[in-house]
Amino acid sequence: MGLVIRGGTVVNAGERFTADIEVEGRTITGMGTGLPKGAGDTEIDAAGRFVLPGLIDPHVHMELPFMGMVSIDDFESGTASGIAGGTTSIIDFCIPGAGMSLLDGLKLWRERSAKATSDYSFHMAITHWGEHTADEMRAVVRDHGITSFKVFMAYKGALMVDDHALYQVMKVAAETGAVVTVHAENGDAVWNLQQELLAAGHTGPEYHPVSRPSAVEGEATERALTLARLHGATAYIVHMTCRESLHALERAKLAGQKCYGETCPQYLLLDDRVFNAPDFGGSAYVMSPPIRPLHLGHHDALWSGLSNGMLDSIGTDHCPFTHEQKRMGVKDFTRIPNGAAGIEDRLAILYTHGVVGGRFSLERLVELCASAPARIFGLDKKGAVAVGMDADLVVFNPDAKSVRSARTHFSKADRSIFEGFDVQGKVEKTIVGGRVAFDNGKLMAERGAGRFIARKPTHFAHPPEVKA
Questions:
Q1: Which of 4, 170, 304, 396 might form a disulfide with 233, Cβ 3.0–4.6 angstroms?
Q2: Global pTM?
Q3: What's the helix, strand, coil split of the chain in %, to 5?
């Protein structure tokens, strides 16, 4: 039994056209006009609607143990929330605990992710450098199809790596053809600023952004790109928030370096006034790097980077904690668990403020949220509506209007950082692996239906020799 989607406007990166789409099993098997209906086929009338490739979120943290808590969305609820918002694949971060090998960490994350409702893959985090780390990195790429790593230049005393470790990670990544995703903040500077603020009695969430000024992000971005350049490694700077960081990326790209940059919707639309919300409400917005002041030009720089191609993708950094979990830091902002929900909001928010707002086209939105993440991270069967690709599709009504709210999203998060945002455009149906998993507000995602997607390395500093 197959599926036929009729009369929609297909939108890929760089193109749009009207076509019927035929699906058999998990794969798009035909496209054209007037496709015949097979016996038992389900038909979807998409006239007047856009049909988009399922979005890919390259930056999420499901059920992440962090800062003494575990993020509230597990792989089932988090991927289901994504499906409701048009995201049909995620790349989570496998972060082994202290003293744990990369392979043991991977085993743990594979167990957690077995309940995912959509397809997924992993970035492997390197949080220290030991005598076996290089060999474990090679094994992760060679034997397990994980072709991207993560380093944290922040969170001193926990996840942060020093420059020696960063140098070594870049070296092995270049050798193995992997991408290095980088959380770029100068962790030593942040730690010292935090201690000085606390010593002065500044303990509220409004001091979180003060402890992490944009200069520390810009400096770390420059440093990460420099170490990548030494080895010819491909660096991907995650959740970029500021002019300084973007300018470092621009300089590297214009000099011919192969590197990528990602931002998130919260950094485009929110500003640091959110931290002054009453009743500890500012804690909902505590994430790192922080949301920036409006008057310093960071927001305009990011929007420009998205429109002119200097920024390559938009993730969400979906990592929600409840208000009660955040209260762990009620007397010390450095103890507030960092993170917020966002995977369900991304498409509607970006369509409203990016496309309808005239900042970029719908084709560019698809590139930023689907085709570019697929290309960068080697998800070969995803990111486009085309014959032979995975049947991950979104039927999107451009005229519908709604209001974003924690009361209506499918995340377990009890607050939304986009609460009350009016949006235009609505996901009507989401098709995951050829099956309708979301239909006009009704979630039909199946626990465990997601597959782990193994990937092949493509970012070698020097391509390996092909033997005859």
A1: 170
A2: 0.96
A3: 35, 25, 40
- CA pair distance 173, 145, nearest whole angstrom: 14
CA distances from 314 to 240, 376, 401 (A): 10, 13, 22
| Cβ count near 92 (within 10 Å) | 25
* Strands 15-24 and 27-32, bridge-based pairing: antiparallel
24 vs 28: CA distance, rounded Å: 7
The predicted model gives 181-193 an average pLDDT of 98
Residue 383 and residue 374 in contact, taking contact as beta carbons nearer than 8 Å: yes
pLDDT level of residue 85 (50, 70, 90 thresholds) = very high
Q: How far apart are CA 434 and CA 392, in angstroms?
A: 7
- CB-based contact 116:73 (threshold 8 Å): no
Q: Which stretches of 177-282 are assigned E, i.e. beta strand?
A: 179-183, 234-237, 259-263
Output the DSSP codes for 123-184: EEE--S--TTHHHHHHHHHHHH---EEEEES-STTTTB--HHHHHHHHHHHHHHT-EEEEE-
β-pairing verdict for 50-53 and 393-403: antiparallel
Strands 65-66 and 55-60: unpaired
Distance CA 306, CA 301 (A): 9
Spatial CA neighbour of 52 closest among 380, 376, 383: 383
Mean pLDDT on 456-466: 78
- Cβ-based neighbour number of residue 293 at 10 Å: 16
H-helix or E-strand containing 428? strand 422-432
